[in-house]
Specification:
The longest helix has 9 residues. The chain is elongated. The two termini are 22 Å apart. It has three domains: 54 residues, Structural Genomics Hypothetical 15.5 Kd Protein In mrcA-pckA Intergenic Region, Chain A (Roll), CATH 3.10.290; 89 residues, Alpha-Beta Plaits; 79 residues, Alpha-L RNA-binding motif (Alpha-Beta Plaits), CATH 3.30.70. With 241 residues, it is of the alpha+beta class. Strands 7, 8, 9, 10, 11, 12, 13, 14 and 15 form a nine-stranded mixed beta sheet that branches. Helix 1 packs across helix 2. The structure holds uracil. The site of uracil has 8 residues, from helix 6.
Length: 241
């Protein structure tokens, strides 16, 4: 159920400016609610149900946004960075007003599924180690992956800092001097996939996340492209915790 909120707060949350800015818009008669000009800042509106128009444009209110990006290589997974372009820099203004952030991190040279949202609660739940949400990676390594490695990964790999990883799943797609595999882990330690293979004396040469819980990377998204999640996808993420 949508909450009833003050008009100035709703407009400010929507990115129409600071409280002071939106008070000016309201005072100047630029805001209509259900067809009538409203000049009181504290006027109560239900932003999901009332028709709010600012300067002739209808306001489509929503609290949260949920995006799936196919992260390209070369960008960092943070909201701002003094030196490097971030994944947030790729988003259009219509999304930036919601102050979105990446849900978890992929390394600068990693590609693939990155969820971007402003729903802190869902993000926290998806990333919580206690929830054990599966993260599946397509990995190309410099080395020959064998069935023995599958068993070792299942048992847990000791990393360079002596941390032993939780049981994970390795699937071999191609095994040669270079190998192609899927690795599914439920944790998100720093550089975890790369460090797991380092412990197995192999180097990751290409890394791409293909799924996170029930969310699969949309194969129609080229690196750098993104789209909103469907209602079903959002529901499946909520239900997977
Ligand atoms: N593991 C890594 O090593 N890098 C990533 O970007 C994600 C998981």
């Amino acid at each position: 159920m949508a909450k009833v909120e003050r008009l100035d707060k709703v407009l400010s949350n929507m990115g129409y400016g600071s409280r002071k800015d939106v008070k000016k818009l309201i005072k100047n008669g630029l805001v209509k609610v259900n067809g009538d000009i409203v000049r009181e800042n504290e006027f109560k509106v239900n932003p999901y149900e009332d028709g709010i128009i600012i300067g002739g444009n209808e306001v489509n209110y929503r609290e949260h946004i949920y995006l799936m990006m196919n992260k390209p290589q070369g960008l960092v997974s943070s909201t701002d960075d003094p030196l490097t372009e971030t994944v947030i820099d790729l988003l259009g203004d219509e999304y930036l007003i919601y102050k979105p952030f990446p849900v978890g991190r992929l390394d600068k040279d990693t590609e693939g599924l990155l969820m971007i949202s402003n729903d802190g609660k869902l993000a926290h739940e998806l990333l919580s180690p206690k929830k054990g949400v599966d993260k599946k990676y397509y990995v190309e390594v410099d080395g020959t992956v064998t069935n023995e490695h599958i068993i070792m990964v299942e048992k847990g790999i000791v990393l360079d800092d002596d941390y032993k990883t939780l049981p994970a799943k390795l699937e071999i797609l191609e095994s040669n001097v270079f190998s192609k595999v899927f690795l599914t882990i439920q944790e998100g330690k720093y550089h975890q996939v790369k460090r797991m293979f380092e412990s197995l004396s192999m180097k990751v040469i290409y890394l791409k996340r293909v799924s996170m819980g029930p969310l699969l990377l949309d194969s129609t998204l080229s690196p750098g492209e993104y789209r909103e999640l469907s209602d079903e996808e959002i529901k499946s993420l909520r239900n997977c915790q």
